[in-house]
Design goal:
Largest sheet: 4 strands, antiparallel
CATH superfamily of the largest domain: Macroglobulin (MG2) domain
Number of strands: 9
Distance between the termini: 42 Å
Strand order of the largest sheet: 6-5-8-9
CATH architecture of the largest domain: Sandwich
Number of helices: 1
Number of domains: 2
Order of helices and strands: EEHEEEEEEE
Structural class: mainly beta
Length: 122
């Protein structure tokens, strides 16, 4: 039996003009849940969501040290990256060139990573 749509817990469907709708899997999006982190132990907060102007990112649950928060477009392009400490928050005001759409937010430390989705509306 082949791959069925919606089988994975993380999925993104994209409409491609002239090619229909495709599913981008967690592997294609580069999302890999580290086994040494339990889902409930690390929290990446993205507020407000959906957002129209600025967005606040906060990460809790990693041990002390640096955490890199990266924002990726649906096409997988890195559009923003910022370093902060676990337990800290950061306010991001996207440039005018950031368009409406679905974005992936990833917090990455030496201990692993955690992801969240962001809907941005202009």
């Amino acid at each position: 039996m082949g791959h069925r749509y919606g089988e994975e817990p993380t999925q993104l469907f994209a409409g491609l003009r002239g090619f229909g709708v495709v599913e981008l899997t967690s592997v294609q999006l580069g999302i890999h849940t580290e086994e040494n982190i339990q889902e409930s132990s690390v929290v990446l907060s993205v507020t407000p969501n959906p957002a129209a102007a600025s967005v606040e990112f906060s990460v809790n649950g990693f041990s002390e040290g640096s955490v890199f928060v990266s924002v990726y477009s649906a096409a997988g392009r890195l559009v923003h990256k910022h370093r902060l400490s676990s337990g800290a928050s950061y306010l991001w005001a996207p440039d005018e060139d950031i368009s409406s759409g679905l974005y992936l937010v990833r917090a990455l430390s030496d201990e692993g990573s955690v992801e969240s989705k962001l809907v941005f509306v202009r």
